[in-house]
Design brief:
Layout lengths: L15 H14 L5 E2 L16 H8 L3 H5 L8 H12 L8 E6 L1 H13 L5 E5 L5 H8 L3 E5 L10 H15 L2 E6 L12 H15 L4 E6 L24 E7 H4 L8 E6 L3 H16 L7 H12 L1 H29 L14 E5 L3 H10 L2 E2 L1 E3 L2 E5 L8 H11 L2
Parallel strand pairs: 1-10, 3-4, 5-6, 6-7
Antiparallel strand pairs: 2-8, 7-8, 9-12, 11-12
Length: 402
């Protein structure tokens, strides 16, 4: 007798990225020289987790009664207001926004799938994507459809993008698109102004035909070279579409374990906006109920207290410089090696194209270099690689990736 329904009876018990990280950690503990480029957390050059001290202080200073109490189901209002103002301030999107607190950016993705698609329908994203997008779809009885990420010239494949949206809209009469930009996970690619213009025009046309929601996963926004200009391309879309943002405190505030996140929904029509806010709160009650109260209060203060914010921004700038130095070192070392990878201006990850990614990853692992294989490529988490190890990492990639 199978106690679990068939769809749940053969689930994998461990995330493959965390399994690789565990193996790398064990080999390092045994005394082996290891370069671990698997997990998406920013590490200092000594291998310790990079943490913003002022955020830790803010967490400790949340009054005990606030920290211990249930947060409202939809989340702490001051937190919502602070995040919306920080992300969308100065744009028309801010006046059309409602928010719901979520356990990290992953919770925001889950809510978007649940609220903007019916069971059995498909979410659209790029062919290179963060693996848990697929897990989230599967777990929520949705599917995933991809467009080809890159054209032969290395730019976004806009023809495939438009064709995939057309086909999906015709099939199911509704669209939900996930765009991970800037600093795309896993490729490190950030769309250009021209690409954003084209994407916006295509989406605007689709939104006149079928109900459309576009979610921008901004998990890595704080480490991008340009953190503002992409918003202008989204403003026109709210004429007919819902514009969503999956916001995460994990990377921007170096608080991965606090699980501080939000789904921000920009909806022009006030009646539809209220319905969206209600649906978000209802979905929260039916899943995790409440989110981390202390984390929301602390982040709200980090965003609104001028002196504290200046401290946070200064500490984050040091981490941005740390990561940017690794990006520069990677690009410099990779020049002339024959490695094929997208334009990489910043962010936690870069993807190196490979004909046989699994075999390439195994060759790298045999040399003590841990990466994440995916269809057609190797994901390299440069965020976790010490600057001094970047040249050796590139050498290993050049020698092991076919």
């Amino acid at each position: 007798m199978n106690l679990l329904p068939d769809r749940n009876a053969s689930r994998p018990g461990d995330d493959p990225i965390f399994a690789l990280n565990r193996e790398a950690t064990q080999r390092r503990a045994a005394g082996e020289k290891v370069i671990n480029a698997t997990v998406g957390a920013l590490l200092e050059d000594d291998g310790s987790l990079a943490v913003l001290p002022s955020v830790v202080t803010a967490l400790r200073e949340v009054p005990a009664q606030k920290a211990a109490a249930y947060a409202p189901i939809a989340g702490v209002p001051e937190f919502h207001q602070a995040v919306i103002r920080d992300l969308l301030g100065g744009t028309s999107l801010a006046d059309q926004a409602v928010a719901c607190s979520t356990p990290g950016g992953t919770g925001a993705l889950r809510h978007a799938l649940s609220l903007f698609l019916d069971p059995g329908q498909s979410m659209v994203t790029s062919s290179f994507y963060w693996g848990p997008y697929g897990t989230l779809c599967d777990e929520n009885n949705r599917t995933l459809t991809t467009f080809n990420t890159f054209a032969p010239d290395g730019t976004l494949d806009l023809a495939s993008f438009e064709r995939t949206l057309d086909e999906t809209a015709q099939k199911q009469g509704r669209l939900l698109l996930f765009l991970n930009d800037p600093c795309h996970n896993p490729t490190g690619y950030s769309m250009s102004h021209a690409e954003w213009t084209a994407v916006s025009n295509i989406l605007h046309a689709q939104s006149k035909r079928v109900p459309t929601a576009v979610l921008v996963d901004v998990a890595y926004l704080a480490y991008a070279r340009d953190t503002k200009s992409f918003r202008a391309h989204l403003e026109p879309l709210t004429e007919h579409a819902a514009v969503l943002f999956a916001w995460s405190g994990s990377k921007a505030f170096t608080q991965y374990g606090q699980r501080i996140g939000a789904l921000i929904a920009c909806v022009a029509d006030p009646k539809a906006r209220t319905a969206t806010q209600n649906a978000l709160a209802y979905a929260s009650r039916g899943t995790w109920s409440n989110c981390n109260a202390a984390g929301q209060h602390a982040v709200a203060r980090c965003l609104t207290d001028a002196a504290l914010r200046a401290q946070v921004d200064g500490e984050r700038e040091r981490l941005r410089a740390l990561l940017d130095a690794r990006v520069t070192a990677f690009n410099t070392a990779a020049a002339g090696t024959g490695l094929r990878y997208p334009r990489y201006d910043g962010g936690f990850f870069v993807t190196v194209f490979a004909r046989d990614a699994k075999a390439s990853a195994e060759r790298l692992k045999a040399r003590g270099v841990f990466t994440v294989p995916q269809p057609g490529a190797i994901r390299v988490a440069l965020c976790s690689v010490a600057g001094a190890d970047v040249p050796a990492l590139v050498t290993a990639l050049a020698e092991c990736v076919d």
